[in-house]
Amino acid sequence: MENLILSELKKIQDSVNQLVEDKTIHQTVTTIADVCLAALQKGGKILFAGNGGSAADSQHLAAELVSKLQYDRPGLAAVALTTDTSALTAIGNDYGYDVLFARQLEAVAKQGDVFIGISTSGNSENILKAFAAAKKIGVTTIGFASKTGGKMPPLCDYMLNVPATQTPKIQECHIILGHIICAIIEEKLFGEQYNPNYKKNATVAS
């Protein structure tokens, strides 16, 4: 068991080291945070969706925005489309699992919102159809996936591709970078007014 623990920790370490060194990912994270920030400032909301562990990541990141990440401040408009069991089961039963998120976007999304679809493979059919539905509405589309992005890139305005190849490690990279995106949004919107350590912090880059 000790070997397994060390092996898994080494994989995490390797993934994080790659994230630290990859300036392209740094720029992508900054851009995504700024896109979300602009939408929130204009009265839009951030919508998340994914399956399995990616559903949990969707709920996790939405909660960081609605509640708080690092300090008390006003809540931000964010929704995980993975939480309403009545809507999920009704749509799945009446229309099919592949339109689970597209149908919800048709109902609650508006032009100026941002949709973040999370898929380790980049090939989850219900996420791909959600991107297509979002595009029709005028919603900005952001994909979180692995290195290649699967089928997601043509459907996304912005792609966050992480270097890991195993599903658990891809998800770990997603939540690390998702936290950083939330931190940038929080600091740019509220840091000066609400962060007690703001004057000690370096300015968050644009």
Note the main attributes of this structure.
206 residues; alpha/beta; Rossmann fold; 5-stranded parallel sheet; 55% helix; globular
Tally of DSSP helical segments: 7
Structural class, from secondary structure content?
alpha/beta
Physical arrangement of strands within the biggest beta sheet: 2-1-3-4-5
CATH topology: Rossmann fold
Rounded to an integer, what's the Rg over CA atoms? 17 Å
Major sheet: size, sense and barrel closure? 5 strands, parallel
Task: Estimate percent helicity.
Answer: 40-55%
Textual characterization of the structure:
The protein is an alpha/beta fold. The chain has one domain: 3-Layer(aba) Sandwich (Rossmann fold), CATH 3.40.50.10490. It contains 7 helices and 5 strands. It has helices at 2-21, 23-41, 53-66, 85-94, 100-108, 125-137, 167-194; strands at 46-50, 78-80, 114-118, 140-145, 158-161. Strands 2-1-3-4-5 form a 5-stranded parallel β-sheet, sandwiched between helices. β1, α3 (53-66) and β2 form a beta-alpha-beta unit. The longest helix is centred in the last third of the chain and has 28 residues, at 167-194. It is globular. The termini are far apart. The mean pLDDT is 95.
Itemize the secondary structure elements and their pairings.
Blueprint (H helix, E strand, L loop, with lengths): L1 H20 L1 H19 L4 E5 L2 H14 L11 E3 L4 H10 L5 H9 L5 E5 L6 H13 L2 E6 L12 E4 L5 H28 L12
Parallel strand pairs: 1-2, 1-3, 3-4, 4-5
Helix pairs in contact: 2-7, 3-7, 4-5, 5-6
